[in-house]
Amino acid sequence: MQFGLVELGVAEWSVVIALAVVLAVALIVWLVLWLTTRRHAGMSTAALSRSALSILEEHYARGEIDQNEYLQRKANIEGWGS
Fold first, then answer.
1. How does 48-73 read in b/e, with b if 16+ C-beta sit within 10 Å?
2. What is the pLDDT of residues 63-78, one digit of tens each?
3. pTM for the complete prediction?
4. What H or E segment, with its residue span, contains residue 28?
């Protein structure tokens, strides 16, 4: 039966299906990478450091880390921006 397409055998259809699967996987990988890198595209190193600092401050406020650890990590974070 022909449906307006070139009549292909099993081997040819296998290649077409394999290419479609590869294309679909590549599209999904590209989409995931685009979505994850897009969030930080416009942020400077200083802005990223500020968000890291706010997370650190939350851990300290909850009592999850002590003052010494807070100060050490804060110094490390502030060193990223320079």
1. ebeebbeebeeebeeeeeeeeebeeb
2. 999 999 999 999 998 8
3. 0.41
4. helix 10-38
